[in-house]
Each structure stands twice: as C-alpha cells, then as structure tokens.
Fold this sequence. Notes:
The chain is of the alpha/beta class. The chain has helices spanning about 10-20, 35-55, 70-75, 95-110, 120-130, 145-150, 165-170, 175-180, 205-210, 215-230, 245-260, 265-270, 280-290, 375-385, 395-400, 415-425, 435-440, 440-455, 460-470, and strands at about 80-85, 115, 140, 180, 185, 190-195, 200, 325-330, 345-350, 360-370, 400-405, 430-435.
Amino acid sequence: MKKVLWQMLALTVVAAVLLAACGSPATEAPAATEAPTEAMTEAPAATEEAMTEEMAMPEVPFDYPAGGALEAAINGDYAGTTVTVDGAFEGNDPDGVKFAESMKAFEDATGITVNYVGNKEFEGTISVRVDAGDAPDIVDFPQPGLMATFAREGKLVPVTSFMSDEWLSQQYNQGWREFNTVDGQEVGVMHRYSGKSLVWYPKQAWDAAGYQVPQTWDELLALTQQIADDGDTAWCIGIESGAATGWPATDWTEDLMLRTTSLENYDAWVAGTLPFDSPEVKNAIETWSNIWFNDSYVNGGRSSIVSTSFGDAPGGLFTDPPNCWLHRQANFITSFFPEGKVYGTDYDFFYLPPVDDAHGRPFLVAGDLIGMFNDRPEVRALMEYFTTPQSVSGWLEGGGAIAAQQTATQDMYGSDLDYGISQLVADATAFRFDGSDLMPQEVGQGSFWEHISSYVAGSEDLDTAMKAIDASWPR
C-alpha cells in the first residue's frame, strides 16, 4: 500500500535549480568563488534528487497497491485510454450518477476515461455481447451466479493474477472474498452491498398514528391488521423490473427462508439440493403470501404487484396521508425516495422481525461484484481502484449502498443510516447472500423470477410454479 504526496511546485523548483547550475560564471568574480561554487553545486544536486522523487509520487485521495497497474496509471502511463464498464443500471439513474461520482477521483488521478454503458435489460443483453465477442472491459455484476457462469466459461480474468493476496486480504474480510471465488479461483472483487432485511416507514405519520415497531413476526402481522382496521393499506409492494421482474419476490422468499428454517437448509436450497417444491421453501413463500394476497393489506391489491415498478412502490410512504405504511426493501431504495426526504424525520426503518427465535436474527445481503473480461493495463488499474472504498464514494456520501471494503471508515458515510445498517449486518447472528443471486443464472435470474411472478399474478399455483423452477435447474 502506498499513499504519496504531490508537490505542485516541484517542476518550478527543479527548473530553478537547473538554471542556477547551468548559468555562465563569466560575469562572476573569479578569484574567490571556486570553493563556494563546489559547495553550492552539491546542495542543489541533493535538492534536485529529492524534488525529482517527489515529482514521481502524485497525491491521490485513495490507497493503492505498490507496484501495480494503478500506481503506473497514477504516474501517467495510461493517460488518454478508455475503459468500458457494463452493468444493470443506466447512466442517468440514481446509481448511474453515483457511479460517475465515484469514478471521478480515478479519472482525475490517471487521465483514464471510464465509459459506463449499462442498461436495465443487462441480464438479457450481457450474454449476447459476450457471445458475440463484444464483451466490455469490466462488468458490474448484481448477481454472483451470473458472474460464476462467465467464470466457468473461462471469460473472466482471475484477480489474483495481478493483485496480491496480501492486498486483497487487507481490503476485504474472507467472507466477501468467498463470494467472488468460483471453483477455487477468485474471479472478481466485491464492490458495494445492500442490507436487505429492512422495513421502511413514514416516520412523522407513523408517530402521529401511534404505531409501534414490531419485534416479532406475530407483532408485524398484528400491525398490518391494525392499519387495515384503521382504513388504510399497510404494505407498498411492486416487483416490476423489466427483464428482471420478480426479483423483489425472491428477496422476500430468501428472508423468510432464513427466518423459518435452518441455515443448512438455506444453503442446500441455494445449492440445488433442497428443491423448490420442498415443504421448507413452500412454507416460506406461503408466509409472505398471507400478506401479499390480502387486498386489504397491499396498496393497489394483489393485482397491482406485478405491474408496479420496484422503484415506484415506496412512493406511497410519502403521500399525505400515506397510501401505504410499510415497505420491505434493501437500503439502496433510499435512492428512489422523493428528493429532499430526510432519514430520521420523514422516514425510518426497522429490522424485519424473526418468525422463529430458534433461527436467531439473520440478515440478508446482496451486492455488486466486479469482474474483468479484457486484460489490459488500464483495465487492471481500474480493477485495483474498485478494491478501495473511494470507488464507492458516490454511494457512501449520497446513500444507498455500503462499502464492502473493510478499510471504509465512518467518516466516509454521508449519513448515519448506511453506517448504522453496516453495523446491523456486523451484529447479526448470521448473514447470507441473496440466494437467487447465488443460484445458476438459468434459475436465479431466469425461472425463479419468471414463475414467482406468474404465481403472484395468479396465472400459476404454487405447486406448478415450484415444480417448473425445479425442472429448470441445470443438472
């Protein structure tokens, strides 16, 4: 790790020293200057050496591994080059804006342009691009399962081929590194994550109504009924997301799996050895279905869920009076809240309560992993930058994500919200990565989304949907 200081006046000082050394002595008095001239030429030589060393070490607002591509980039070796990045958000989306903000320090320090070209249909288009030989340099993967598919096809460059284990261990705890490991090879780096086991509510209206934060699942159900009895609908729910429609329903399933069965069963389900058609999985889905399929509980009723965008769904929290009072979603959703809304004043959150105390207080997380397709020095430099918390700075300052890098400090966060969630994750009795994101792409980003959406829409019953997902699992 190196952090070096840039002296802006170095060129001026060195130029002055060289001019002094090279100036003609013809106008000087010759008799008494020989010894002083020798002394004077020694001191400037040392100064020139020190200044030249400082010139080679520009100041940057982030740490980086010594001797790597990023260090060479900071020294100007790849200025004028471009690195392309693809992902699941568009450039003008809230996440796109935060990504651009996060890249500015890298671009300013290296002269490399980062060209982000993501889109909301990413899951459907990235495979086409790669198969056509048009892979972007780097991909921001929202699903480890999709990254693993490319890794097994030999498309990704292992990060350990150009980053040391010492550097990676300094930046990440082992759990995050394991999420990027496929068949024994570390093929990506964790960038940022969201805590998912959260329920958001409109604080001012909530306090005025006298509602209390539930500590158990039974209390949550009682609160839901109380809000209905008061003439309102409790829940804001929407699962529309373009080609990824259905993913919020998979999140609810994962959270309820963690709360109704063992961690071993959760892991077996993710690995494909516990089928979707098992009693454990169906019980988890039926648990949330008891809320979703009651029109008295959901804003717009069951029929609106599949057509309501996940980003628009929490808008009902902020009407006056609220159209709905509860929204279960990861902390990134604050990026979709109306502008000007303030955490702790306009909205707050609570931990999605446990169903069974025997399963503790687990926490569901998800996040973005960065993988590299094209091996060029400037691409390596950006990959090294992605291992620093400064590469998440747009989200840390603006809210919506948490740094996976353990070198992130509290003062990097623009609010107490995301830092507080990071501590909830740290204090959980267990945490697991989003299950659908870990499953094979055909399932986690395919049949699970498709058939859970059909189940919510009412076009398939639960048994039919679960059997269809099981049949899609690659064997």
